[in-house]
């Protein structure tokens, strides 16, 4: 089976969330990823339950926002999750959005690329050396960690725009993408992360390009598209995503308040098995090393999470 990940979303019960992780493992998926939503369960604790309930499948955060955890607390959490899972954890982190960081949390989001660079420096040094003494403008740490740690534990960052993508290539083990079209990945993501890798004296070998691909196996394609259209509209109102979507060639229709069927088809796989598998294949062909099937429902024709994962397996 080609490499494939599964992205889970918020569900009503913890048992249902764990059942989805077990289904992904049973179907041969390489890893299961969980996003920390502002109004949902603590993703790290849910992943601890995934680790307990599974044997082989890897799991990652896609993503945890850096402003809710000081980098030393992030190291403690990540190293502990990695330990209790037997080395199956992948740490994915991101900036989040100005409206969330400032309006919801009452913090400041300034110079996100510089802040992420400092954060990554503390993470990397602490996991490698068992502590650090680093003074930064945005994050500082003077500490030691005495617990077990895996120095090479993968650290990936969410990135959309050129400077953050460049930083991902330079300092991270991979990049985690959402709402990026295959064309944007081919024409913008890969050149930017390649430039970052060159700064570090590396090529793209071993660098992970993870993309969450919204997919829905459904007997009601129009109904599935309408659900996903609402998602696209919501993200197009967030500045980081809007800048990326405009650069993807969607500027004129978004400015007109439209989300066309062609745009939905470029970003997702909605319909029968052919549509689901075709979306996965498009992202692979664009250079994604680890496509992540992200099943969604929300309408009567949806076949459900596990059935959609089954449809994506051979994509």
Rg from Cα: 19 Å
Given helix and strand content, the structural type is alpha/beta
Count of runs of 4 or more consecutive helical residues: 12
Overall number of structural domains = 2
Strand order of the largest sheet: 1-2-3-5-8-9-10-12
Amount of helix: 40-55%
Alpha-carbon distance between the termini?
9 Å
The ordered string of helix (H) and strand (E) elements is EHEHEEHEHHEEEHEHEHHHEHEH
Q: How would you name the CATH homologous superfamily of the largest domain?
A: Luciferase-like domain
The whole-number mean of residue pLDDT values reads: 96
Task: Walk me through the structure.
The chain has 315 residues and is α/β, with parallel strands linked by helices. It has 2 domains: 153 residues, Luciferase-like domain (TIM Barrel); 132 residues, TIM Barrel (Alpha-Beta Barrel), CATH 3.20.20. It is built from 12 helices and 12 strands. The strands form 2 sheets. An 8-stranded parallel beta barrel has the order 1-2-3-5-8-9-10-12, surrounded by 7 helices. A two-stranded antiparallel sheet has the order 6-7.
